[in-house]
Amino acid sequence: MKVFIIAAALDVIGTVLLSCDIIPSVSTSISSSSHLPSPSPFNLSTSLFELTLLSFLRFIVSSLTLLNVAYKYTKESYDDKTNMKFKNGLTKLEKDEIILEEPWKPFLLRTLTSPTFPLKTISTLSIFLVFTKAFLRLLNGVNDEICLPDLHLIIFAFIMLTLAAVAQVYIPRFTGNILDALGAEGGGDTFDGSVWEVEGFKENVRNLAIAAVACGFFSGARGSTFTVVGGRVNARLRRQLMNSLMAQDVGFFDVTKTGDITSRLCSDTTLVGDQVTLNVNVFLRSFVQAIGVLIFMFLISWELSLLAFVSVPAITIMSKWYGAYIRRLTKLTQKKLADANGIGEAAIGSMPTVKGFGAEKAELSEYDVFMDRYLQLNNKSAFAYLWYAAAITSLPQLVTALVLLYGGMLMQSGQITGGQLVSFLLYLSSLSDAFNMMGSIFSSLTMAVGAADKVFELMHRKPRVKPWKENANPDEVKVTTLRDRKDGIYPTECRGEVTLSKVEMYYPARPNRKVLDGMDFVAPPGAVVALVGPSGGGKSSVISLIQHLYEATNGTIKIDGSEVHMLAPDYLSKNVTVVSQEPTLYARSVARNIMFGLEGEDDEPTLEDIKNAARLANAHDFISNLPEGYDTEVGERGVQLSGGQKQRIAIARALVRNPKVLLLDEATSALDAESEALVQDAIDRMLGRGGEEVGNPNMGRSGEGTGMTVVVVAHRLSTVRNADKICVVKNGVIVESGRHEELIKKEGGEYKNLVARQMSANDKLEGKNK
């Protein structure tokens, strides 16, 4: 903090010296010389010498200050312990990108992060050229759906912006006219009239006041309009990204860290939205102002105007390099922050496990590694900014000195007046401010471009699981009646026949391991089919394919003869429902969790429907005993409920939809004996194979027969012995199938061996408990 205070103090001192001492003396020299019959450049030259000297001193002060700050950062971050962490924790690619052993050589790197300090002054067109290229790259990813709805507001804001800029560029001209009017009357004892009687003085003062008021009003209208547009664009950007995430296949989330996704959705969208709207406000205002100022500067003196841009080539090259340098680093920095977010989110989300294993220190250490990497990158950006800022801070002051020197010569030769030279200096200052504004958002723009690349990559990513094939012919689909829609076909009737034919599958996260190898499987309408077998055989993969969470590598998956990738997503979600081993509940009421996905739909269940489904799931009694019954909040991920209670709510959530295909993926394997008995009884009720209140087979939300097709994945074979068909899955194929009575009689069969091993394990467990 002391270093920042010193930096700010030295900068203020330099600015005060320049503005309060030298500029008044220069103005005095110009004013006095304009009244001399034979102008002497002595006072002007003295002031110019002082200005040049102080500009050089300020450059030295700024450089030393920045170097001190960078050294402080480096001293704090590059200790032996941190360096050791980095050497052990970085991949080879990252070591190539970050030369930790030589932190004083940022120009050797390929990537860096955003600058810590604001840019001071950019008085050349180079920053505009670099900015425009990066800004167009950013806007290229924003489609019409984001900005087009507010086009009328953007046009209005641009009109206000133009009017404000026009009013502002006239202010220096009126100021110069006032000085010329006063100078024409002489000074001191030579003028004894009222200042208001000076020719041209009153008119120019009036015009100056009008221009100032108009500039303020139009600027306010511009700023408020852009603020409104900014909020709307930001919201649309977030919605569109969220829509894209909702459309992604499950395989995408298997290989993408949650921290990366939340970072894109939260911080990166805000960063991009601000650049597209709020900072475009600053950029356009400064750009229009710069254009107007340039016009008036050339009208005053084209020679002085050209002289003002002698540093364009050097700063153009520096700005272009710096922008590309920072943009590349930003991508790496965002990745480090996303990795850190992922570590933090995982630790917070599993705090009982972390504390149970005493892993707090380990999780903090892992989090610190990513934070240290972030600090290392930030330090390098400070070194890069040191040289960049030092150059662009000193050059404008030196250029101003040259303008004053040559302007004094032009004034002495009578080519311009003293008032015109003052106006030119004010215009030069205004131009410097305009490019200073563009420079202040230049660093954040380069950072936003890096973030935008990731946001737009997610927004435009096409999921591997395609809900609809554009070249599909609905006539080839063997269904009685269907509705052809953009997102797929929507049959008017679902019987619940499930067929897998020669299916092969690889998971995106494990592309070298074949999970299913030519799977053939049929579940007739209304039948109960069980999938059993050793772990890793592919049972749960069949469940995922029927839901169309993944795309099969080869083969077909059909429901009632229609391939699942041709069916509309809402048709699948309505008719195919799953109860998994670890059901997910949300921080909502019990009732809202049961009707999850149906709120606001045409077939939204009533409270009575929800209660009927809960009764069939053996959940009504315990829900009624909760503090607020069905309105009780279950907490994040259902932490207020036990495992058995969550599972029964999940079953009620499946039943309330009246599905035609019900998938049970080891729904009881993670429960204790008592909870398992209750859940199993609920499943038996649902299947019409047991329970006290079962009136008809396959009860739905209202107790009516639904004729569900049920596919059950189970490890406990006792839970599936009443199934219509049992399929033994091993190494991605079905090796045996039939009813329990048939399979148990096969000598040396896979199913009989599974039953024998399970019974032996149960006998051993019972023996230990005696």
UniProtKB/TrEMBL annotation:
Ranges for domain ABC transporter come to: 498-756
Main localization is: membrane
Nucleotide-binding keyword on record: yes
Annotated coiled-coil segments of the chain: none
- Location of the protein in the cell: Membrane
Protein name per the record: ABC transporter
Gene Ontology MF, one: ABC-type oligopeptide transporter activity
The record, for SUPFAM superfamilies, names: ABC transporter transmembrane region, P-loop containing nucleoside triphosphate hydrolases
Gene Ontology annotations for the cellular component aspect, listed alphabetically: cytoplasm; membrane
Q: Does the keyword Lipid biosynthesis apply?
A: no
Q: Per the UniProt entry, what species is this protein from, by scientific name?
A: Triparma strigata
Q: How does it sit in the membrane?
A: Multi-pass membrane protein
Q: Which Pfam families does the record match to this protein?
A: ABC_membrane, ABC_tran
Cite the Gene3D superfamilies for this sequence.
ABC transporter type 1, transmembrane domain, P-loop containing nucleotide triphosphate hydrolases
Any stretches that span the bilayer, and where are they?
A: 117-139, 151-171, 282-300, 306-326, 383-406
Q: Which domain of life is it from?
A: Eukaryota
Q: What are the ABC transmembrane type-1 domain coordinates in residue numbering?
A: 155-447
**Keywords in alphabetical order:** ATP-binding, Membrane, Nucleotide-binding, Transmembrane, Transmembrane helix, Transport
